[in-house]
């Protein structure tokens, strides 16, 4: 066996060694402070490291397995590990002398990692990690080594190598995505994932899944690589990939330290708008119990709106990174996995996992896999193992793009096997819940006779069955009330509602929510008319009465015309006062007044003439009857249009007057009619939608049908299909719950007793008693107490004490 090189006496003394060992930590600090002065010591230790390295490599080459070998000596292995760490610490200060040192460490681990002792492997790996963290060597050159180190069976080394790979890639993408580096590392891991060696492929899959879960690599390439692992030859790799795809939505967010790689994500809070009147009533009106109920109702409304807004923004939000969403060929993935399921001889649990992933993919991407539903039909039996999970997968695979004829045999199988009089109540409730969920996605499957039969189960004495039947009834009150008999329809929101036919699509012809903006503008215009012209319903009724007299007496029309002309002239003067600002505007307003006065005089002359009086009376009667029945403010609207036309004619001669007129009108609906909306309009639409949702959440007690996109993104839980009815507790069980809730609470004491046991300082009331009062205040207080005592004595002497017994 080769021996270590002999050390000269001067080098031993110069390096600060004792009789046998080098003091490496002190030498390391000295070399960092003065690198040039300790170059000889560096070369000495580097030579010792190389010689030990050669001995270990020769042992590996000769397959030396004797217990007397160099690997059996723990001191030699420890010295080699200490020198490796020492050289890794001083490498930044000696870049030329130690230029080949990182590559030597990598080659040493690649060639002889399996034959090294566990402690030495960990020390060498830590030295290499230190070099990578200081950017002396690139992670692209060491990723393969660290992935192989995880397959050696050393638990400490596997944990160290895995955490190093994860944190290095996260740190690399912390500020911005390093796409060239990411692609190189992904190609390495993708190649390892496709290898037939199970250990390497599994570690590569675990690394990819962890990076995807931490939202470091959430691109399409990583997602597709994880999904393609479902077709690996090894069943363990397939099971790991399937379990990750199924449990991805259940994974909760990590701590803030784990989410450091997702700093670019915008933190959007859900917008909640509630009625101010409801908030005021919940806090200030009513008794304490009623306030409590109102506050609870507000909290429920807030929670429901938060949930709806979270579900609506789930697809657009950056927090939704399920790998199944990023499949490039979802149809091919589902067909390939279904063919493997049909030819599989694995356990039932593995088949169920494959079936769930297929159903999730079909529902998420609205795929058409017609052979899948007959395959499910074979297992739809009440005594089938995990039948609720199977039914949940069947529900998940239903969507509005599947032909109803393909799902109808499965639907009938569920009804015939679960919902009949001889079935158990648990099976009936599960069957009704499954029917409800399938009809929520495909309402065309339900027929009128079948629905009426199923709804009759709401009269069952079993609470689970009756609640499931009522939920089906509530669904069809919203979806298609015509299938129900008249007494079961209740008060639906839309009595003429019907489900969409197969293949029917509603194409949006306008911006969603623009009708809310137009309605709000219309309401604001009506408010503006009432404020500007001061028109009331009493005036309208008086005018209508005056016009009604024109049939009997012709003078009534003259009075009405005078009233109209007077009101219109007043409104014109008001608009002129608003438009005062320049000489041109004054001229325009004067012209407008003159034009309008001429028009009014013409109308009065026509009314005075006997030839047109009858025609005018009849037309005015028809107009007032027709318009007054629909809008009580029709007079104000007529005046507004008349004034607007006059001003428009006058404003056509001046650009400034035209701009003034456009600003004074403030009609936002004219902007929406041309199809051009500003950012303020979109923000207003968002606020109006939130207000509408708040109004419906506070007033709605029925069932709101979700859209097909919401149903596809939502995962169907098998637990919701089962009957979760609370049983009535006995008195002993209730008392146990009460006592369990009182364990953490202290013993009951009166408030005075708790004040007496106070351990802190004095209360504010006690401090007021000790406060030094001014002399005048003391005298006033004494005088006040003297007067009160005097009055008390006077009242006590006059008090009736009853007749004495001896009189």
TrEMBL record:
The protein depicted here goes by the name: Protein SDA1
Biased region (Basic residues) positions are 767-807
Instruction: Tell me if Coiled coil is a UniProt keyword of this record.
Output: no
Coarse class of the primary localization is: nucleus
Q: Which residue ranges does the record annotate as region Disordered?
A: 1-35, 511-639, 745-807
Question: A biological process (GO) annotation for this entry?
Answer: protein transport
Name the family.
Answer: Belongs to the SDA1 family.
Q: Where is the SDA1 N-terminal domain?
A: 86-460
Residue ranges annotated as compositionally biased, kind Acidic residues, are: 517-530, 575-620
Q: Which residues form the signal peptide?
A: none
Q: Where in the cell is it found?
A: Nucleus, Nucleolus
Quote a single Gene Ontology cellular component term. nucleolus
Q: Which domain of life is it from?
A: Eukaryota
What does the UniProt record say this protein does?
Required for 60S pre-ribosomal subunits export to the cytoplasm.
- Sorted UniProt keywords: Nucleus, Protein transport, Ribosome biogenesis, Transport
């Amino acid at each position: 066996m080769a021996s270590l090189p002999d050390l000269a006496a001067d080098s031993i003394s110069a390096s600060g060694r004792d009789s046998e060992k080098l003091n490496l930590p002190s030498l390391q600090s000295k070399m960092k402070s003065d690198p040039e002065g300790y170059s000889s010591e560096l070369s000495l230790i580097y030579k010792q490291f190389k010689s030990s390295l050669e001995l270990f490599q020769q042992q590996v080459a000769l397959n030396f397995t004797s217990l007397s070998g160099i690997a059996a000596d723990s001191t030699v292995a420890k010295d080699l590990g200490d020198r490796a760490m020492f050289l890794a610490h001083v490498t930044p200060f000696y870049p030329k002398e130690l230029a080949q040192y990182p590559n030597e460490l990598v080659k040493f681990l690649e060639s002889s990692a399996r034959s090294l002792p566990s402690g030495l492997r960990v020390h060498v790996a830590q030295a290499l990690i230190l070099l990578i963290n200081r950017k002396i060597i690139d992670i692209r050159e060491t990723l393969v080594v660290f992935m192989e180190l995880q397959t050696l069976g050393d638990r400490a080394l596997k944990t160290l190598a895995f955490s190093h790979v994860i944190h290095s890639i996260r740190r690399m993408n912390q500020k911005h995505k390093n796409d060239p580096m990411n692609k190189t590392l992904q190609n390495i891991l993708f190649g390892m994932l496709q290898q037939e060696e199970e250990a390497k492929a599994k570690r590569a899959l675990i690394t990819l899944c962890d990076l995807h879960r931490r939202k470091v690599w959430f691109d399409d390439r990583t997602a597709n690589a994880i999904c393609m692992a479902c077709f690996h030859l090894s069943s363990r790799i397939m099971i790991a990939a399937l379990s990750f795809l199924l449990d991805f939505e259940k994974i909760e967010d990590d701590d803030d330290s784990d989410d450091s790689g997702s700093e670019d994500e915008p933190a959007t809070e859900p917008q909640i708008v509630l009625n101010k009147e409801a908030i005021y009533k919940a806090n200030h009106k009513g008794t304490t119990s009623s306030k409590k109920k109102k506050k609870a109702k507000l909290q429920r409304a807030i929670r429901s709106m938060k949930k709806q807004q979270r579900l609506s923004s789930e697809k657009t939000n950056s927090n939704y990174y399920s790998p199944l969403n990023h499949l490039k060929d979802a149809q091919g993935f589902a067909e390939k996995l279904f063919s493997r399921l049909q030819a599989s001889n694995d356990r039932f649990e593995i088949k169920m996992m494959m079936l769930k992933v297929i159903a999730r993919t079909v529902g998420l991407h609205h795929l058409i896999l017609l052979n899948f539903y007959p395959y499910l039909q074979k297992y739809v039996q009440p005594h089938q193992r995990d039948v609720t999970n199977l039914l949940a997968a069947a529900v998940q695979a239903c969507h509005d793009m599947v032909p109803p004829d393909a799902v109808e045999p499965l639907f009938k199988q569920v009804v015939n096997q679960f919902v009949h009089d001889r079935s158990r109540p648990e099976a009936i409730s599960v069957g009704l819940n499954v029917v409800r969920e399938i009809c929520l996605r495909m309402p065309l499957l339900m027929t009128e006779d079948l629905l009426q039969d199923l709804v009759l189960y709401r009269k069952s004495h079993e609470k689970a069955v009756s609640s499931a039947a009522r939920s089906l009834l509530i669904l069809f009150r919203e979806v298609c009330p015509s299938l129900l008999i008249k007494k079961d329809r209740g008060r639906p929101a839309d009595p003429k509602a019907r489900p969409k036919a197969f293949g029917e699509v509603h194409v949006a012809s306008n911006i969603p929510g623009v009708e809310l903006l137009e309605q709000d503008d219309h309401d604001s215009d009506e408010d503006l008319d009432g404020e500007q012209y001061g028109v009331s319903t009493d005036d309208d009724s008086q005018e209508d009465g005056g016009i009604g007299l024109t049939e009997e007496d012709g003078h009534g029309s003259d009075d009405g015309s005078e009233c109209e002309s007077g009101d219109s002239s007043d409104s014109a003067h008001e608009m002129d006062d608003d438009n005062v600002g320049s000489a041109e505007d004054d001229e325009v307003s004067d012209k407008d007044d003159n034009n309008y006065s001429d028009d009014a005089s013409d109308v009065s002359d026509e009314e005075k003439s006997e030839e047109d009086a009858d025609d005018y009376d009849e037309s005015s009667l028809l107009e007032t009857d027709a318009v007054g029945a629909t809008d009580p403010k029709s007079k104000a609207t007529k005046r507004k249009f008349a004034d607007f036309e006059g001003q428009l004619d006058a404003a056509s001669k001046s650009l400034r007057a035209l701009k003034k007129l456009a600003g004074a009108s403030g009609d936002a609906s004219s902007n929406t009619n041309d199809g051009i909306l500003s950012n303020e309009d979109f923000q207003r639409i968002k606020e109006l939608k939130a207000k509408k949702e708040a109004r419906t959440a506070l007033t709605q007690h029925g069932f709101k049908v979700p859209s097909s996109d919401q149903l596809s993104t939502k995962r169907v839980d098998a637990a919701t299909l089962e009957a979760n009815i609370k049983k009535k507790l006995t008195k002993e069980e209730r008392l146990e719950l009460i006592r369990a809730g009182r364990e953490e609470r202290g013993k009951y004491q009166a408030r005075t007793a708790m004040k007496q046991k106070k351990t802190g300082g004095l209360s504010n009331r006690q401090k007021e008693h000790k406060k030094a009062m001014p002399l005048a205040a003391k005298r006033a207080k004494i005088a006040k107490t003297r007067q009160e005592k005097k009055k008390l004595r006077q009242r006590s002497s006059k008090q009736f004490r009853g007749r004495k017994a001896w009189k």
